Please model this.
Amino acid sequence: MYTTGIDMKSHIESRINQANEVVQGLQSHADDITEISRAIIHCFEQGGTLFVAGNGGSAAQANHLCEELTGRYRETRPALPAHCLCSDAVAMTCIANDFGWEQVFRRQLEAFATCIIDEHEEQSCNDLLLVLTTSGNSENINEALDFANDLGMMTLGLLGRDGGESKSKCTLNVTLDANDSAAIQDGHHVIIHAICEAIEQWVLESIEND
Model:
């Protein structure tokens, strides 16, 4: 049997306890998660696209949310327009090389977001940007939020710690007040699946009512 000099079980139990503490605290954010879900549903109702971005583990979660919406979560239903801004390594490395890493999400929004100019020549956008960040201080995330806000997009955040700079840039946010990035991401993952539950229920009810 392989052994080490560390108390492995205690580290595993500590990791589980940190995750449990954050997840149990999500009940206090249920109203905010509901509002974020409603905003995404409204985006889809208006023919908009949900753009999602994150770095590292948050990039993996951004990708996961998008595949649940374009593919399926539980039920087979129409595909939903969710675009992950951190899934195209070629585009990201091209942009980073030519414009800097802080531009990798902003530049893609510039390419793919759709703006509407009304009869009064006022600009609006039915698309949404959802960002995931445990610190709220990632420069590429905040550049994307600034650009999205300038376009008239609603901006959503799944954040951690005190929300960092991203918090004031988001129209709606859920900020998990924890110091451990892994525990924050554990909480974010539960939120992602809660959002999927709400959206999929809306789709199925819409189909039944047609």
